[in-house]
Design a protein that fits this description.
Length: about 240
C-alpha cells in the first residue's frame, strides 16, 4: 500500500505539471457529458436515470480507460515501469499507483456531472448505493481493462487505436441498455460493463421496471476482477516493438 501511494503521488505531480494535458483530459469527457445532458434536455426521451448512466459511462470510458491505457504505455516506453519493479514494489502496487490519479480524476469528473443531473433531474435520485456501486466498480473495471489493453499497446500514440474496440463496447453497451425498456434488459446486455453501469443508475433513480441489482452488480464486479487478473498475467513491463 505504501509503495502504491508513493507511486500515485509521483504520478499526480506529473499530471499537474502537464497542465495542457490535464486540461484536455478534463475538458473532453466533461464536454461530451454535457452534450449528453443537453441532448436529454432537448428530447426528454432518456430520463434522468438513463442519462446519468450515459454520462457516467462516457467519463469512465474516456478518462479511466483511454487515458489509463495511454499513461501505462507511456510509462513503459520511458522505462519507468521496469525501474519501479527493481525498487521492490509489487506488480499490483505499480499498476494501482500509476492508475490511481486517473481513477481519482474520473471520480471527480463523474461527481461534477452527476451533480448536474441530480440538480435538474425529475424524478430525483432515490438510492445512492447503486450509483456508488456503478461508479466504483465501473472505474475498477475500466482501470483493469486499461492495464490489459496497455499490454498490447507498443506506444502511447497507438492507444487511440488499441482502445477503440473496448471503448466502443463500453459506450455501445450503455446506449444499448439506455434504448431498451428497463424490464427488458438481459444478462447479455449486463455482461457489457457499460450496460451494467447504466442499469445500476436506473435502479438508483428507481426507474419503473429497472430491476436486477444483484445480476448487474455481480457481472460488473466479475468484469473488474477478470480484467485485473488478466492484466496482471499478460502485462508486458519491457519495451514492446
Amino acid at each position: 500500500m505504501r509503495a502504491a501511494m508513493l507511486i500515485a503521488g509521483a504520478e499526480l505531480t506529473l499530471l499537474f505539471r502537464h497542465r495542457l494535458t490535464l486540461a484536455m483530459g478534463v475538458v473532453l469527457p466533461v464536454a461530451l457529458g454535457l452534450l449528453v445532458l443537453w441532448a436529454e434536455a432537448d428530447t426528454g426521451r432518456a430520463g434522468s436515470g438513463s442519462v446519468a448512466g450515459l454520462v457516467l459511462v462516457t467519463v469512465i470510458a474516456l478518462t479511466a480507460y483511454v487515458s489509463g491505457t495511454t499513461i501505462l504505455s507511456s510509462r513503459r516506453q520511458q522505462t519507468v515501469l521496469r525501474r519501479l519493479r527493481f525498487s521492490g514494489a509489487s506488480d499490483t502496487a505499480i499498476l494501482v499507483g500509476t492508475l490511481a490519479p486517473t481513477a481519482a480524476l474520473t471520480v471527480t469528473q463523474a461527481a461534477m456531472l452527476l451533480g448536474m443531473v441530480i440538480s435538474v433531474d425529475r424524478p430525483p435520485l432515490a438510492g445512492l448505493g447503486p450509483l456508488l456501486l456503478a461508479l466504483v466498480a465501473g472505474v475498477a473495471a475500466a482501470c483493469g481493462l486499461a492495464a490489459l489493453t496497455a499490454a498490447f499497446t507498443s506506444a502511447p500514440e497507438l492507444a487511440q487505436l488499441t482502445t477503440t474496440p473496448i471503448g466502443l463496447a463500453f459506450l455501445g453497451g450503455a446506449f444499448w441498455v439506455a434504448w431498451i425498456p428497463p424490464a427488458e434488459v438481459t444478462a447479455l446486455m449486463l455482461a457489457l460493463p457499460g450496460g451494467a453501469v447504466t442499469q445500476l443508475t436506473r435502479i438508483a433513480w428507481h426507474v419503473p421496471g429497472a430491476t436486477g441489482l444483484v445480476p448487474a452488480a455481480v457481472l460488473l464486479g466479475l468484469s473488474a476482477v477478470g480484467a485485473v487478473v488478466a492484466a496482471l498475467r499478460v502485462f508486458s513491463w519491457d519495451l514492446r516493438r
